[in-house]
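Hi! If you just cloned this repository, the fastest way to understand the data is to look at a raw example. We've pasted two of them here, unedited. The first protein comes first, obviously.
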Amino acid sequence: MINKVHHIAIISLDYEVSKQFYTDVLGLEVIREVYREERKSYKLDLALNGEYIIELFSFPNPPKRQSRPESCGLRHLAFEVDDLDKIIAHCKSYNVIAEPIRVDEFTQKRFTFIADPDYLPIEFYEK
């Protein structure tokens, strides 16, 4: 049976820009970074609070994909936060602008979205 989500894999268009976004803006920790010569690809393993959660990849000329929350496929990546206003201000300090705050109609919790450098929707959901 399934125990938990092991990791999420993301392919970036500009590896260095995405690496900076996920480590500096979101504050994820680098576990390991390797360059795979045979694939001409970087693989960066990232953790949140010591738990491995994201693999960030680079590949030569990856095809673009629709990525708005309402597009078919992966809808978004969501992170739980204690203080939504604080994370919005933190992102703004890196010129990453959040969408207007919404309220979940079922839980009454506040949430918002930002976009990573490849426009992957990222949600911040207040605890």
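Ok, and the second one:
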Amino acid sequence: MNANQQHMLDVYRATRLGTPAPPAPGLNDWQAVREVRDYRRFRAAVEDRPRRAHRLRTALANLFASATRSSGTRSVRRPHGVGTSTPRPCG
């Protein structure tokens, strides 16, 4: 049974029992994610644990940086004085 079928069953039961229908699946997903994140931050503060510095964001930034390095989009660094002088005219 998938989420939509379960929701239809819950709505049917709610109408039979005269109770309010539950929200549709997926309607409050981001709100639930934010609440879990806020709760974890709260528990860390209460237990006096150090805050973790954006592990997911840091990991994604490192992954993106390594992908751009391997794709060859970085500029080539030359040793000082190599290929930077202008050619002299002949004659």
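That's it. A detail worth noticing about the second one: DSSP finds three helices and no strands in the chain.
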